[in-house]
Structures are given as C-alpha cells and as structure tokens.
Please model this.
Amino acid sequence: MAVAEQERTVRGIGHSLRRHEDDRFIRGKGTYVDDIVLPGMLHMAILRSPLAHARIVSIDTSKAQAAEGVVAVITGADLAAHNLAWMPTLSGDTQAVFATDKVRFQGQEVAAVVAEDPYLARDALQLIDVEYDPLPALVDPHKALEPDAVLIRDDKEGQTDNRCYHWEAGDPRATDEAFARADVVVTLDTHYPRCHPSPMETCGIVADVNQATGQATLHMTSQAPHAHRTLFAMVAGLPEQNIRIKTPDIGGGFGNKVPIYPGYVAATAASLLLGRPVKWIEDRSENLISTGFARDFHMHGELALTRDGEMLGLRVRLVSDNGAFYADAQPSKCRAGLFHIVTGSYALPAAHVVADGAYTNKAPGGVAYRCSFRVTEASFLIERLVHNAAIELGLDPAELRRRNFIRPEQFPYTSATGFVYDSGNYEAALDLALQQVGYDDLREEQRRARAEGRLLGIGIASFTEVVGAGNHKDYDIAGIKMFDSAELRVHPTGKAILKIGVQTQGQGHETTFAQIVASELGIPPEDVLVQYGDTDNVPYGLGTYASRSTPTAGAATAVISRKLRDKARQIAAHLLEVSEEDLEWDTGRFSVKGAPDRAVTIQDVALAAYTNMPEGLEAGLEGVHYYDPPNMTFPFGTYVVVVEVDPGTGDWKVLRVVAVDDCGVRINPMIVEGQIHGGLAEGFGIAKMELITFDEDGNCIGSNFTDYLLPTSWETPNFECFATVTPSPHHPLGAKGVGESATVGSPAAYVNAVIDALGHLGVRNIDMPVTSAKVWEAIQQASR
Amino acid sequence: MYPARFDYVAPRSLEDAVEALAGGGDDAKVLAGGQSLIPLMKLRFAEPSLLVDINRIPGLDGIAEDGGRLRIGALVRHNDVVGSRLVADRLPVMAAAAPLISDPLVRNLGTVCGSLCHADPAGDWGSVMLALGAEVVARSPSGERTIPVSELLVDTFTTSLAPDEIVTEVRVPLPQRRSGGHYLKLERKVGDFATVGVAVQLELDDGRIGRAGIALTAVGPRNVTATEAERVLAGAEPGPDAFAEAGRLAADAAEPVDDVRGSARYKRAVVQTFVERALTRAHEIAGGSR
Model:
C-alpha cells in the first residue's frame, strides 16, 4: 500500500474529519453539569450585593432559615469560621468568597441559601435582610488611581492605594532614542471595552463530599480541572488525593471557566457541612455580572515613523481596570498577560510598555476571552495605530504594513519586548488576502462611491499572536509550570485510549487528538477514545485556554505516539524476525525493506505486546509523556473587512470578510475553519455591540442578553477563509494554536474598515463597540 | 432564572377568561404569547399572582377582512402577520414591520395584541397601529368596548385598560384609496429593542396626499404620533420637499432621551432620516412615482 493511500485510510492529520463528539450534542445526549442529578441533592442559590461599594452593617438570615424547604443559610461569617471567607486568585491576590467586611462590586456574593429545590432556594433569598452602609463607588480606573481615592482593598495589609500592579516591558531608553529620530509620531487613545466570554452554559458545580471517607467529587465547569484540584486543596485544606474534579461536557468556556469562583467553594463547603450533594448553577445574569470579564484596557499608543513609513519605535501606556479583586487568569510573571506582543508583525526595533492595574468597584476577572492573555488588546492597538499611521503618511495601509513586516528570513526573530517569534511569512498572508478580496478594484470602487456620497471602507489587520504557554521556565500559573500531558494506552485488539491533560469546551479534542494518534501510530481515529477532564483518570495538565491544547498536549500526544511506535518497532522486528533497522514504517504498518509483503500492522503489534512480546521487553503498549514546549507558537494572518456606512444613521454593514490564517500545519482543516468562523463572529460582536458598562454608582449595565448584545446568525457576516502554511519549527507536528486567532485579529479589521470609510472626513478613532450612534456623532463632529 | 410562585388557569372560553381575570384582582395577568411577561417573571421584576392563559380559547387566532377593516385576533402571532397575503396586499406598513419584530423565536409566539397591551414605547406595533388609526376591542364582565390605539397607549407600560379587561382583537381600517406604507427600524442587533422606529401610512387622493399617518417608536414615553408632520402632509403635493418637511416636524415631535443606544440628538436625526425615507418608499408603493 502506498504511503499516501495508507494515510488517507487512517484519516489523520490534514483530514477534515467530522467531529466525533457532535453526534451526542446534536442528539441532545451531551451531559452538562446541570444534567447531573445525585440522590439527596440540594440546591444552592447566592444572594448578591445590589450595591457596588458598601460596608455590611448586619445580615439577618432568620426569616430565610425558617422558610419552606431551606436546609441552611450560609454567610461570610459562617465561612470565616472554617477559614473559607477568602480565597486566592490566579494572579496572587485574594478574593472574598462571601463578603464579610464590605461589598466591593454590584453582584458580589454575600450569602447563600441551600434548599430542597432551586425555586425554594431563590424564594428564601428574598427573605435575607442585609443592612448596608453605602460608600462612594469608583468606576473610573484613572480616578481610582488618584492619591485621595477611597481605598477599595482596605482588607489588604499594606495596601494604601487602588493600584493592583505596575509592570513594564521593553527598553525605555532605546525607545526614547527611536522617538527622537522620528519624522512622525502617530498617537491613539482607545479603550478596549469590558466584554464577556458568555459561554452558552453558565458556570456551575455539583459538589459531593462524603463525610465518612472525606472524598470530595466535584462535577464542575472547569477549563483546567487539575489546576483547580490543586487550588482546591490549597484553599480548603483538603488532601489532594481525596479531591476528584470531573468535568462533564462543557458548554463553551472562552476563558470564563478558568478561574475559581465563590460559588464552587461555597457549594463544596455546604456539601462538606451538610453531608449531601449540593448543586449550584448560576443564571445568565449572575454569569454576566460576577464571573470573569475580559479586556477593559485604557490604552495610549505612540508609533514613531520616518516620513517614508519605516517604523522606529512604539510606546504604550495603559491602565487596566481589574475590578475589585486582581483575579486575572495569566502566567504569574506577566502582570498584564502577554500584552508585550504589542509590536505585532512588525520589525519594530524599540518598544516600551508601561502598565498599571487599578482596583475599581466592578466585578473581578480579567480572563483571556478567547485570547492568549491580553494578546487581543495588544493586537488591536498596534493594528489600529498602523491604520492611522497610513492615513497620516498618505500611504496605503497594506503598503505600510508590507514595508515593516518581519521578513521570513529574520525568523527566529527576537522582538523588542523579548519574545522569540518561531516562524512567519506575513507578506504571503497579506498578499493572499488582498488578492482574494480584490483589493485594487475595491480601492477604485471606494473612490467612485465617495463621489456619489456613499461611504465604503476597507480595513486590514495583519495580526500576530503568541499562544501555547509554557515553556516552564517563563510561564506558570500559581506556581504550577505550564507543561501539558498525554497518556496513550493501546489495547491488545489495537484500539486505544488517549488521556490528555487539556480540557475541551467545544474545540473538538475528541476528534483532532485522535487524528494525531492516527497519523503517528496508524490507528484509525474511530479506534481512539479521547478522554479528559477527570482528575482521577487523566494525567496532570494545565487545561485548555490561550490556544494551548495543540501546542502543548497535541505535542505530548505526538511524542508519546512516537515513543510507542519505537516500542512497536521492536515488537515488529521480533514478529518478522528481522532487525529493527530492516523495517520500514508506513502509517500503521511495518514492512521489511525490499520485501514489502512481509509486514505487520500496528494492530498485530498491539496484540503481540500482550501475547507474544520479545524476550526482555516490558509487556504492554502504553505510556505517558509530559511535554514542556521549548517556546510558544506564533500564528498569524491577515483579515480584510469591507464595510458600508449609512451616513444618515451611522449604521454600518459588513460587505466582505476575507480571512487568511496561518497556524502552521492544520490537523483538521474543517475544525480550524470552524474556530476561525467563531472567532470572526466574536470579533464582529466585540467591534459592533458587546459592552459591559457601569453607571456612576457602579450599577452594571450589561447584566443580561437584552443589554449585553451578542451577534446571532442574522447579523453575522459571511466569512471567506483561506490559508497559508508556515510550520512551527519547534512543534513536533509543525502546528500552532489557532482557536483564538480570529477573535484576536479581527476587531481591528472591522474598526479599521469603519475608520477607513470616514478617514477622508477627518475621523481617526471611534472606540468599540462602534455603534451606529457613535459613528453618526463622529461624522457630525468631522463635518463641523 | 426562577420566577416567584403564581397560580395559573387556562380557560376554554372568553367568558371564563374574563371571569377568571376579574376574580384574580389587580395582580392577575393575561398570558398570550408571553414573550414580554415571562422574561419579566423570570427576572422577578413581575410577580403576578395569577396567569390567565388565553391560548386555549378558540376563535382568537384569525386575520380577516370584515367591512372595510382588518380584524386581528388576540392570538395572532407576529409570524402570522409575516405570512399573511391579506396584510401583504393591503397594509404594506404592517408587512414591513412584522419581520422586524424582535427575532424568529419571539415572532413565533408573541402576539400583536399582547405587544400593544404591553405598551412598551419601544414596541413596533404601537407605532404601526397609530399610523393606521387602528383600535382595539376590550372585553370585561361589564361588556365590550372599542378603544382607539391612540387612547390605549397612555404611558410606558401603561394602558387605559381596566384590570379586568381582555383585548380580544385589534381592528385596522383598510385604506380605500391608492395608498402605501412603510416601517423602518434601527436596531443594534436582531432581537434588540428599537433604537428608533418609524411607521408611515400615506393615502393618495387625486395626485395629492389625502390622509398621512406617522408614528414613532422608542423616542418617547409611549409610541409618539407625529401630528404636525401628518397635518402638513394632508393635502400637500407628495415629493421630496414635503417629505423632508415632514421629517423635520417628526423629529420635533420625538421626545427621545440619552441612553446606551444613543443621544437624544442622534435619535432625532434618525427619526428625520427615516421619516423621509419611509415616506419616499410609501409613495412609491402607492404608485405615486408612476
């Protein structure tokens, strides 16, 4: 059998295999946390603060305690008695589980009712009487950082202001020198608004603690079950071997299910104290007002250029609005995530980033919503700056990018902020995008349209991402190094189970990871069962977020498959009575060199591994590998968006979206394209409509889906997707992460398109969400 | 999202429904499509003591022509209007508005009459019915009465209905002359409440404008009739000048407020743009440009 033929039969890497997991989802046979019902299970509901900042004077739970069906009412004082009133965050801060001293954001957890059914639990919530003494609410992070601002975190010893971090990257002196040489400095002040991952399934847990054995089984919505197990052990003081975290099907995460939330801790404590399983499922509003938000970066960028468009330096000052607790999910050394990728796709010789975080009276979180730790904000800023620079210099924005791209021969490229880019060919992706969109004709059409009073705009974003953390030296979360794992067990009949340390929330792991095994070991994907998300069953891993599954656990899967293939080769040599060097490997088959008919399949070898092993060789065909990536991967691409703006209403419609993505080798091209579609839709939503905002008293506006707008299939534009392939040189498969590229790269393309439509009127910036009202106001101001 | 406790009845006749509602006191509510009421209950913003579900009452789900009017029963869904040949042929303003109501899920269940009774100033049907000069029929234990929509809509979420009255149908006068109508809506996304909506109805009379109806959505405490704009159009020669003037007057009639959807100034400007555009389109539909 020819190699190509054999590979087609196993349908491994490069095949658009239909998603194995969709069968159960489409039939409604998935199991989500709320589908889990245990005997004797109780229901918990959480009372939340109506005020953004207030001292708690008293909490009277007596009426609720006496209400029908109520088993327990839990307050912060009750938790404090077990040393559980506070918990650590992923950024090394502390967060109140239930408020004991004061509430610090609207929606903060204050108390809980545990009752026989969820209706009765919520009825009883209305009977808890909390007396608050209101304090002034701080909703503007700049005001929060002023010296006389009221102190939000008076619980923290030594905390005298509302600054939660100060962080710098790059070289200030080299940057100052670059600016001194510049002909032109283009500046942009922009707010990347607070938005929310909004997974379809909200967060929840069924906590089942056996009082007799001390065994705690926690069925929960987690993107990182092992990390959560370790943190639970630290928070609750439970022995880690007694904690089992099981993630059933997860209905989307997008970063929202990386942190540990008070509800998880409270439900576990309730189950421990009551000796019965306790379910807590937050509702949509609770998810929006209290769980991990994203972005909320106030950015000031300065780009220094020569008159002919050579980029010399980049300066960024930013203030992040972190809410009441610094609970960003990010590597511990990176106080503003990986924002320092802000030099993007450009050979920028000098850059300096200064970031300050502010505590405010808003929900904590700062999660990487479909983003590798603040890469989204960075990509947005540089791509918006480049567009505005093109306007100022009178250059075509595509041409300005082309002149400054890091060239293919410069890789591996060390950026001014210290990243080592693994590989790239930015111009090829740009060229393909321009060709597919018909760029030159579009520019001509734009000129004609303007003459008729129509406003057409073309926006480009040539983004670069950094995904797939670790390596272990530079990246850890709460001290746990960012490796990941895969354990492969090939059974005697040639079927296999692959156990991975990462956690699918819809990414298609059950399909793509099986395809990796198929390509590497020749076992067809339908014969490979992929397991994850049960900490008693799968090897330790850091979970799925920041596009890290393929770069880390995908690599681990390739490596362990290769290790088993090496062992299989020994067994095959034994079976064929030749030396290992005399064997040739076609996917799934060892044959004798020069005698191709003398062959054994991987299935033959698997059987022999348990029935007929060679003398001195350990039985079985199993193994585990922990993969420590040598570097992160740097996927990139160019998105081109064409819009038309209605001058009468400011409304804008997307006419075209052309997306060229380069994520190296694509394991399942259909799934990759699906990821890109999802990201382009989310990018559109962020650019046009998604916003959580607050009034001056700290009341959250955006607490349900009539206020927090998500795009549906009705308004989401059509996407035209294309690929270039520049393999990662250090990844065993040449693959890079891709799940987040489109969310990261596309918002700037949409916004650039609107600005491009209005650029000739003098409009230079409209902050997201670019609502029709803001566009209309910008046109009015420009026309004055 | 768990509502508070409530009682529920599903009577089989209008008489029983009226009786149940009257017996339920001020906290009883009629349930038709439930597309506004149920979300409010799930948020516990509304905690009615009794729901009178009228969905099992026969004879309320028809759209029919009857003596120069269109009768739309209390159980006619938005989507029934989308699919109605009669509406498409005779009342293009309704045909234009129906597919813009919220999203497909809401249109499948929500009702025209229920939307009117909810009296949300961002409701689309309020403006359409004001532009058309429609009226509703209300039944109570003391009998039946008709109420012009202009008198039904009193204030935000407030109608002139008594607590024991059930709206059984809306009656729309069918235009006799050459006529056209149009509805334009600006929304942030499908399913969002309108930022601005404009309903216009134009009836031509021997080359000039006869009756004109213009009403505005989401720019006041209730759906707003642009009375001055209607007045200047009546008897005027149709065309860009008249339509532009009507747009300016309609913008003056709007009472918008600043909110997340935009400034009052912006909303007025959209009213002006939309009235002008909608009148132009209505005029085309009426055959006026031929």
